[in-house]
Amino acid sequence: MLMPMTSWRLLIHGAESPARNMAVDEALLRNVIAPVLRIYEWNVPAVSLGYFQPSALAAERPFVRRYTGGGLVDHAHDVTYTIVLPRAHPWMEMSAPESYCQIHRGVQAALKACGIVSELTPASHDVESDACFAKPVKFDIVAPTGKLSGAAQRRTREGLLHQGSILLPDPARNADLRAGFAEAFVAHLDLVVEPGELSAEESAHAEQLERDRYATEAWNRSR
After folding, report:
1. How far apart are CA 215 and CA 211, in angstroms?
2. Of 216, 164, 208, which is closest to residue 24 (Cα–Cα)?
3. CA–CA separation, 56 and 8 (whole Å)
4. Distance CA 25, CA 13 (A)
5. Is residue 1 part of a domain?
6. CA pair distance 144, 75, nearest whole angstrom
7. What 3 state SS string does 55-121 have?
């Protein structure tokens, strides 16, 4: 098992706007020093679009364009989390699929703690769809009911941004999953986690990104 260099910072955030959520994620990436696990919620039933997707896919729904790629994600009933790693972290030596698999093993452990049995799909399904949860790809988490979790990544000179979504068969279990997610995730991957908050620099950067990027038509309707 590849080990982190230091403890992970755990951020638990309540319901925020789509623009704020994406701004915080990017601010964490731009200022990353040590690994971060963030679990958060949405204050409106919005959708997020992958970086390259056309804005028309959102139709009349509230939406935001992510900094990562991938497909459209409906956040009306899901559980969302973000992982941010600095460039020097050992997991950065993995390929994108390897790191995706590693992280999803931890997500599987959180699902198991909620009594939900799942597996990693061994290969991408032969399905064409703009929606993330309609198109399982290799190492997504699936169950007989369908796809449970997918994610998208972006690597920059600062590090890795991994944005994940979990859609349970019964959304009434979301609170249970959020409550136990971090404990099961870090235990399975043999990590050390410490609760934390956004730094002053991260908060200021998130405010700037929210105002100048994620809350703007220029960004969200750029495609």
Report:
1. 6
2. 208
3. 38
4. 11
5. no
6. 21
7. HHHHCCCCEEECCCCCCEEECCCCEEEEEEEECCCHHHHCCHHHHHHHHHHHHHHHHHHCCCCCEEC
CA dist 23 and 26 (Å) reads: 5
What is the CATH number for 128?
A: 3.30.930.10
Q: Are 31 and 202 in contact (CB under 8 A)?
A: yes
Number of domains in the chain: 1
Distance, CA of 61 to CA of 84 (rounded, Å): 28
Residue type, 130: D
Say if residue 134 is exposed, middle or buried (CB neighbours under 10 Å; 0-12, 13-18, 19+).
middle
- Are the C-beta atoms of residues 42 and 75 closer than 8 Å to each other? yes
The CA distance from 181 to 164, in Å, is: 13
Residue 223 is given by DSSP the state: -
What is the SS3 assignment for 181? helix
Tell me the whole-structure pTM to 2 decimals: 0.93
DSSP state of 8: E
Block mean pLDDT (10 aa), the chain, length 223: 66 97 98 97 97 94 96 96 97 94 96 93 77 84 92 97 96 95 96 96 98 98 94
Examine residue 105 and state whether it is found in any structural domain, yes or no.
yes
Segments forming the whole domain that contains residue 78: 8-220
Report, as residue numbers or ranges, the catalytic residues.
132
- Separation in Å, CA 158 to CA 2, 35, 59, 189: 20, 12, 34, 23
In a domain, 2, yes or no: no
Question: Dmax over Cα atoms in the chain, in whole Å?
Answer: 45
